[in-house]
TrEMBL record:
UniProt cross-references to SUPFAM superfamilies, sorted A to Z: Thioredoxin-like
Keyword Disulfide bond listed: yes
Annotated function: Has a glutathione-disulfide oxidoreductase activity in the presence of NADPH and glutathione reductase. Reduces low molecular weight disulfides and proteins.
GO MF, one example: glutathione disulfide oxidoreductase activity
Ranges for domain Glutaredoxin: 6-65
Source organism of this protein record: Thauera linaloolentis (strain DSM 12138 / JCM 21573 / CCUG 41526 / CIP 105981 / IAM 15112 / NBRC 102519 / 47Lol)
Protein name in the entry: Glutaredoxin
Length: 89
């Protein structure tokens, strides 16, 4: 069973696009994308729950991964795929 993926993003952010490409390459079929460029209230909510202003902000299940660099670091450490399977590392 795959963990739910939620990503706060904008349409043109290259880091958002790269993060989505990495997730797709790992077999993730569904990503709940929350567009902060279309809804300023969502950006405010993102900043409140993450303490960060930049996108993407990625959640795997309830775990806040962080941004694109954090996602890449998880993958390089071999922890991304277990997290995607719901095995929080």
């Amino acid at each position: 069973m795959q963990a739910a993926i939620r990503m706060y993003a904008t349409a043109t952010c290259p880091y958002c696009i790269r993060a989505e490409q990495l997730l797709r390459s790992k077999g993730v079929a569904e990503i709940e994308k929350i567009r902060t460029d279309l809804d300023p209230a969502q950006r405010e909510h993102m900043m409140k729950i993450t303490g960060r202003r930049t996108v993407p902000q990625i959640f795997i299940g309830d775990y806040h991964v962080g941004g694109c660099d954090d996602l890449i670091a998880l993958d390089r450490a071999g922890r991304l795929e277990p997290m995607l399977r719901g095995e929080l590392a």
